[in-house]
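Posting this for the archive.
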Amino acid sequence: MLKLQHSTAAMISVSKQRINHIRALIGNMVIPPVCLACDAHVGDQGSLCPQCWGEMLFIEKPYCAVTGAPFGFDIGEGSLSADAIANPPVFARARAVAQYDAVARKLVHGLKFSDRTDLAPWMAQWMVRAGGELLNDRPVIVGVPLHGRRMFFRRFNQSAELARHIAKISENRYTPQILQRIRATRQQVGLRAKERLANVRGAFWVPPDQKINIKGRRILLVDDVLTTGATLNAASRALLRAGAQSVDCLTFARVAPDAN
């Protein structure tokens, strides 16, 4: 009987795989797949063409155990960057898929400024792989929120879109309501490091009725790009003050520390 159950389960699994494969083939015939970054024709939906793939600066080990900033050479497991030692962040760890250059910038700008919400699920898949160690302990997932005024004009929050898909793929809890941006800040683009810190100071808040949802819990904070870390630090501080055990950060891209 047990062998029959295993056999039936295996047959169902194979059938589902075949159905998904057929669906993918039909989808590719109806809508020919193109590169997510440059629209060149590719073999599968949600992929990059060979040229864009070659130009994508993926972040792989070795990197700083805290900030996730890539090292030029391996200096040992658990090593910290000079920046992490001199300026320890509020969050525990940060990870990113790629450096914010060329192809990664196209994808981020497409999602953020061109309403390319179709990019979010594919970008989220890469983020789940890059941040696998951050997802192991079943964290509560939240995207960096927009202020209501900016949300009204932009119509969607790119960080929330990424967070929602990451939670779905990793089967973790997505709770967008636990963190709010209570002050309308200037856009961080173009601001110096000190200006960025001042711009987001006190900008985030956890509503009192949401503290029970994060007390003693690990939080995964999701954003599109890590630049100086000012926004992620400010949001992490609000979550920790509200009772979170720890905060990790996961972004699609990160700016090289020496470019800040």
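Residues 44 and 60 are 24 Å apart (CA to CA). The longest strand covers residues 218-226.
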